[in-house]
Design a protein that fits this description.
- The protein is of the alpha/beta class.
- Helix content is 41%, strand content 15%.
- The protein is built from 14 helices and twelve strands.
- Helix 8 links the parallel strand 3 and strand 4.
- Helix 1 crosses helix 3 and helix 6 packs parallel to helix 14.
- The longest helix has 16 residues.
- It is elongated and about 80 Å long.
- The chain starts with 15 loop residues before the first helix and ends in a 5-residue tail after the last strand.
Amino acid sequence: MTGPAPDSPRDTRPTLEAVAALAGVSRATASRVVNGGAGVRRTLVEQVRMAVDELGYVPNHAARTLVTRRNGAIAVIIDEPESRIFSDPFFSRQIRGISRELNAHDAQLVLLLVEGSGDFDRVARYLAGGHVDGALVFSLHTGDGLPAVLRRFRVPTVYGGRPARPGTDAAPAVPYVDCDNRGGAAEAVRHLVSLGRRRIAHIAGPRDQTSAQDRVAGYRDVLPDADPGLVVPGDFTVESGVRAMARLLDRRPGPDAVFAANDLMASGALRVLRERGLRVPEDVAVIGFDDMASIAEATDPPLTTVRQDVEGMGRLMARLLIRTLNGAEEPVAGGEADGTVPVITSTALVRRASA
């Protein structure tokens, strides 16, 4: 029987036993501290953490999973085509907020894209395998099958945006984070009214998404008797804003103001107005929604829009899920004044040159 060759590398990584010995505690105590367990005196926790830092100890993921029954991974599920996710800065901002919060809690983000019902089986298999501890889901559409999949496998979930049951706008009793879509839309339309505009059009988002439904509701709160023909659907893309604006201008008389349900559609509307020789805001005032700086500050003229804290909402989603996984019963902070769940964040009108 031969031993290892003299020059063969040895595994010199520090062990949990070494951490326990240096900290002067039992292996069980060191394990509880390293794996986030409770019931250890603060002085012992500090001793173990100092030993971990001094030795450069890195927990074994497989062993840690056996102890905590946690994988340290969170699924971020987006129900949109890749082409939209990587062209709309809304998604990158929300993912950045989620990622920063998960990083602060030593959790890994796993991105799952769902382009249609054909992807449900793949996502279901992944979730059934127990690879993640919970899920953050956004950009849902009415009748979406994702919530049923998540309930089936009992995956702790927080939604971005108000979910809706098929066929109704009533939200199920699930935790979610959203902005005040209705209030923000109403503020935008009130501003246009204050400018003396009388034929105010609305380029709406997809009819099967609650954010778009709520923004239409905010428009109608201010203009309950508006011509129904002044509300034209879009799909949150630049191209749909182009089509909607052209359709509105081809009607007689055309609008003297437009509230678009997001900045991308507003930028498409501005493009058509410029091509038709109309001045903004002199002939037609334009307001968007989201306040994506890369869009709103780059349009000609710069876009007046409704700001929502997209990155902050992503952080709140992740924070709420982490607290749920950790068994915290108190409400997440940072949303409404009373901290209740769901969390509804405020919006604000950002005035630039377009209105």
